Each structure stands twice: as structure tokens, then as C-alpha cells.
């Protein structure tokens, strides 16, 4: 973090770009992740949970030391033992590390893994951009086959579709491999060198470090040059050309419309061949520019970059949850643990409060979803809450009932009620009140 920048004052505020995700909103995250995991399992993926803290060198070598994510945006911390760890800014290097470290090369390939959780980038916060954000991430490691590129794209689109998203636009490109990419890179650098004076300051730097990244520039000054820049697909070697053609063929078979975006490079070092991004035209940043909801690509040389002795061809992609939730089409889904309450539990008097927790536990063991307001004393307030929740039944525990070990079960519609011994409550509810546990 730059020393000039000040965090918001006071311990009672989150740090800049960080936020609490509360109640219904967190349930929506959980609901989405549960559904996404379910779909991934249908497609043959297995879960992977990696640590939030990793060695900083994993991202320096994997993501690339001169990428913005690593050089400008990574949160670093020094351990007491003197190691430098990073709050993960992305999943891919961690997934590859986990694959290699756990010997997954020895298993039938590809190994398909899904992961999710928070990522951290110290970027300027704005609409759709946080310093802590969440991704759902898919990877298929151990194969170069084009079918896996298509499978990742298809599953990301399906997952977004199941969350209600519509009219998604898939942009795709191929960056080539170690045979043809250097030729394209050189041509691109030659082209831009000729126009160096017209470039923004950042791009002049990019030209020295990695000319591919010039195509990532969003500065209006550089757009015209970008439009006329050499295109990577024009330089693909025969193997890369046929790989790209196969990926597109798969997409066509799946009836997935795509646009080839020649400027799509996704500025990380490890991308080879396929790169893609998914947009919802209604999701834009503060400047009105489209924001990618999901993105990914192939990273066949990452394993080597991390020091492994062999290449491990792999492809992956991720959905940004916050961006997805910005879409007007996004539909919240509660996780399975959330059930609509069927009963409201009302307790009156101190004697009733003494028994109240046991009543909650009786219903919990009987798997009957219920709501209560255990700290409240007045009947009126509690009945009011019950009506607001539109529960069909209430259980009332007054002083008399507490002493007699009974409760009153009241039908909120016809207002009939019955006294039931506590010991028989669960059975009574199951027999007399239909659809209780659904
Ligand atoms: P990336 O890892 O940069 O390829 O991003 C993949 C997806 O993560 C993007 O398409 C976004 O949906 C999401 N994403 C990336 N950076 C942020 C951020 N700072 N805040 C919120 N979402 C982000």
C-alpha cells in the first residue's frame, strides 16, 4: 500500500475496499456456491480448498512478478520466521501448487477441481471492484485436449445461467504457445515501438516488460493503436491453430455463441492458447465500461514456471461473485440449510424462558423449522412477529404451561388451539400438522 494513502479512521470501520457480508446477502453467497459446487460435481469436478496465505514467491513466479496483480496489488506479510507470505490474489497458482504437491499427476488425468473463497487485491475500489472479493473457480489439469477448454467454458456459462443470468457474451482468443507466441510478441513489440510516442505512460512501461499487456490497456489514448495492432491468431502455429479450431467447434456443437476478440490477452504471464471472458452487457463499471463476470484460459507452462520438471497442460476459469450479483438478472438462491419457518414459538414469563431453549431443541431434533424471539416478553410483540412471518402455527409457552410441562399449539388461521404435553410435542406436530418438515 502506498504510504500516502490513509485507511478510513476508527476501529469501527472496515479497512478500505473491505466489507461485511451480512445475513441474507451471505446466504445468497452460500446458496450460489452450493449450487455451483453441485453442478461442478455433476461434471466430474472434485473440491479443493487451498490456504488463503501462500508463499509470495508462488505468485511472483506463477502469476508473474511484473503483473499488476503481483507488483502493485498483492497484500504481503512477513512471518515471525522471516518468510514472506501473500494473501492469495488469484487461485490458479495455488491450484497448480496443490496438484503438484499432492501428487495428483499420478492419478487419471485430467484432474478436475473446483475451489472458492476470498481473494485479495489492493486495487482502487470502485463499482464491481473490491479489495476482498469472492470467486468460484474451475480447473482441469493434466490434459491439453480442446474438449476441456470447452467444458470449463460451458460449465461457467451454465453456472451463471442457473443463477438467472441471461444474454451472456463469450469473448475468446488464442495466444499461441512457445512456438508461435514469441513471433507474435516480437511483431507486436515492433508495431508498438513505431508508435511509442503516441502511447500512454503505462503502455510505454509495458512495452519494455511485456508487450502483450499493451492490449489490456483501457486508456482512451491507446485504443486506436490497439484496434490496428497485429492479431495473435494471425501468428498461430499449425498445432495452436488446430487446437483453437477444435475449441470453437466444441462451442458450436454446444450452441454457445462466441466472439473472437483479438485484443483479449488477460495480462498474466502463464496464459497459453485459449483465453476467454464472459460479459453481461448490463454490468458495467463506474465509467460505463463492461466488466467481465468470469474469465480464464489455458496455462500449459505454469507448472514449469513454478519449477516442476515437466509441463502440465491445464485450463481453468473463474466467476467473480460480486460482479455476477451486479446483474439485474441475478436471482438469489438460499442455501439448503435455510428452511422457511413453519412455526413461531412464543414464550411468556420467566418460568417459560427457563424451558424455552429445551423447546427449541425438541423442534430442532424433530427437524421442524421454526422462528422465535427469545428475548421478548410481551405476547402482542411475539404474535405480531408470528403474523409478519405468516407462519401457519404458533407454540405458546406461558407460566401455567411451563409449570405443567405443556405447550399450547395454535392454528393461526382458524385460531383453534390445543394443549400438548412437552414430551409428546414432536410427535403431535408431525401427526397433526402436515408439511412440517418439507
Ligand atoms: P481474474 O482473476 O482477474 O481473471 O478475474 C476473474 C473474475 O473475478 C473477474 O471476471 C471478476 O468477475 C472477478 N474479479 C476480479 N477482480 C475483482 C475485484 N477486484 N473485485 C471484484 N471482482 C473481481
Quickly list its features.
438 residues, 16 strands, Rossmann fold, binds adenosine monophosphate, 3 domains, alpha+beta, BirA Bifunctional Protein, domain 2
Briefly, what is this?
This protein is of the alpha+beta class. The chain folds into three domains: 14-177 and 236-324, Bira Bifunctional Protein, Domain 2 (BirA Bifunctional Protein, domain 2, 2-Layer Sandwich), CATH 3.30.930; 181-235, no CATH class; 343-432, Rossmann fold. It has helices at 23-42, 56-64, 68-71, 92-101, 146-162, 181-194, 201-209, 220-227, 238-253, 302-305, 321-325, 350-365, 379-389, 399-404, 425-432; strands spanning 46-47, 53-55, 76-78, 84-87, 111-120, 132-141, 169-174, 259-260, 272-284, 290-298, 314-320, 343-347, 370-372, 393-397, 406-411, 417-421.
Proportion of residues in extended strands: 15-25%
* Tertiary shape: elongated
CATH class assignment of the largest domain:
Alpha Beta
User: What would you give as the CATH superfamily of the largest domain?
Assistant: Bira Bifunctional Protein, Domain 2
CATH topology-level name of the largest domain: BirA Bifunctional Protein, domain 2
The largest β sheet comes out as: 8 strands, mixed
Number of helices in the DSSP assignment: 15
DSSP summary, beta strand count: 16
How many angstroms separate the termini? Answer: 51 Å
Helix content: 25-40%
Lateral arrangement of strands in the main beta sheet: 1-5-6-11-10-9-7-8
- Uncertain segments: none
